[in-house]
Amino acid sequence: MNHLEIYIDGASKGNPGKSGIGVVIYRDSRLVKNISSYIGCATNNVAEYTALIYALEEALLLKANTLKINTDSQLLARQLNKIYKVKNEGILNLYNRAVQLLSGFEKVLINHIPREENSLADKLATEATKKSRQNVAARHDL
Predict the structure, then answer these.
(1) Which residue, 51, 60, 88, 106, has most beta carbons within 10 Å?
(2) Phi, psi at residue 108, to the nearest 5°?
(3) What is the pTM (predicted TM-score) of this model?
(4) What is the DSSP secondary structure assignment for residue 40, as one 8-state letter?
(5) Nearest residue to 72 (alpha-carbon basis) of 31, 18, 116
(6) Integer Cα distance of 56 and 102 in angstroms
(7) In the chain, which ranges are continuous DSSP H helix?
(8) CB-based burial of residue 134 (10 Å sphere; 0-12 exposed, 13-18 middle, 19+ buried)?
(9) Which residues pair with 35 in a beta bridge?
(10) Whole-number Å distance between alpha carbons of 76 and 95
(11) Is the dihedral of CA 110, 39, 130, 24 positive or negative?
(12) Cβ-contact 113, 70 below 8 angstroms
């Protein structure tokens, strides 16, 4: 069983504004990968979902079977756990893409955590908001 624990965060300077994502991936409590990427002008919720999509794509590349996704976005966690419906058109496509990617895993837990427990992903997302497309590293080269 290949299990990953992943922390995700999205940040937006302005809402919408310059946005970035941060992803931290662990296997057996060991850091596997950090992802920090500028995603352009977006809302914070779009950034949160984009971080999730990056994380899920990376987990598929790492051939994970099970995932524990940790997010400080209560909205994202409740939407993916089917507590809230997705009403925003701008998020619906991202939500549908995430659900499609989630189907590639045997088991996934979407866990809402306090912001203080998500400091590394938050730091990576915040750093990414300060980058521009010209100087951002490809996520697989970080």
Answers:
(1) 51
(2) -140, 130
(3) 0.92
(4) E
(5) 116
(6) 7
(7) 44-61, 74-80, 89-102, 119-129
(8) exposed
(9) 23
(10) 9
(11) positive
(12) yes
Residue recorded with tokens 């976005």: 73
Q: Is the pLDDT of residue 133 over 80?
A: no
> Shortest CA distance to 129 belongs to which of 15, 32, 6, 2?
15
Residue 120 neighbours by CB under 8 Å, 6+ apart: 7, 22, 24, 34
Q: Which CATH class is domain 3-133?
A: alpha beta
Residue with tokens 């352009």: 40
Tokens 């996934």 map to which residue? 108
The per-residue pLDDT for range 26-36, each reduced to its tens digit, is: 999 999 999 99
Q: What is the pLDDT of residues 41-57, one digit of tens each?
A: 999 999 999 999 999 99
Q: What is the CA radius of gyration of the chain?
A: 14
Which amino acid is located at 36 in the chain?
S
Q: What is the pLDDT of residues 71-91, one digit of tens each?
A: 999 999 999 999 999 999 989
Residue 80 and residue 48: Cα distance in Å, rounded?
12
- Ramachandran bin of 82, using left for φ above 0, alpha for ψ from -120 to 50, beta for the remaining angles: left
CA 85 to chain centre: 19
All structural domains of the chain with their residue ranges: 3-133
What are 109's strand-pairing partners? 68
